[in-house]
Specification:
Elements: E1 4-7, E2 24-27, E3 34-36, E4 41-51, E5 56-61, H1 64-70, E6 72-74, E7 79-81, E8 88-95, E9 101-103, E10 108-116
Antiparallel strand pairs: 1-4, 2-10, 3-9, 4-8, 5-7, 5-10, 6-8
Pathway: Pyrimidine metabolism; dUMP biosynthesis; dUMP from dCTP (dUTP route): step 2/2
Protein name: Deoxyuridine 5'-triphosphate nucleotidohydrolase
Cofactor: Mg(2+)
Length: 143
């Protein structure tokens, strides 16, 4: 898959760090430190713009090290970049931790994974087929 990229940041084009890596790290393209207080949200620019092929999406995901060590995550869990979006990639971070967290220029703030998807064709019906599970959800199977 070829993804066209425009890099307007001060940092290198993101790349895969190992042969088995599924995601690329995104860098904070900021001019000065940003302090993220507990439970505060912030939108951090990356300075990159993508042209993702149709049939694929970019998924912005939290970095596990930042989540474990500092409680830094993404407000929306996983951010979706649609194939027809051409704006700057930005990351919505939240500090779930108890301490202030400082984001420095060039810090690796999130990772980006490309995923193939299919579009559904909906067929309206009067009722759905039965299954053993049925309407059970939200813990219905017990412990």
């Amino acid at each position: 898959m070829i993804v066209k990229i425009v890099n307007k940041s001060k940092f290198p084009i993101p790349d895969y760090k190992t042969s088995g890596a599924s995601g690329i790290d995104l860098f904070a393209n900021i001019d000065e430190n940003v302090v993220l207080k507990p439970m505060e949200r912030v939108l951090i620019p990356t300075g990159i713009y993508l042209s993702i092929p149709e049939g694929y999406e970019g998924q912005i995901r939290a970095r596990s090290g930042l989540a474990l060590k500092y409680g830094i995550g993404l407000v929306n869990g996983i951010g979706t970049i649609d194939s027809d979006y051409r704006g700057e990639i930005k990351v919505i971070l939240i500090n779930f931790g108890n301490e202030e967290f400082v984001i420095k220029p060039g810090d690796r703030i999130a990772q980006l994974v490309f995923v193939k998807y299919e579009k559904a064709e909906f067929k309206e019906v009067d009722e759905l087929d039965n299954t053993k599970r049925g309407y059970g959800g939200f813990g219905h199977t017990g412990i």
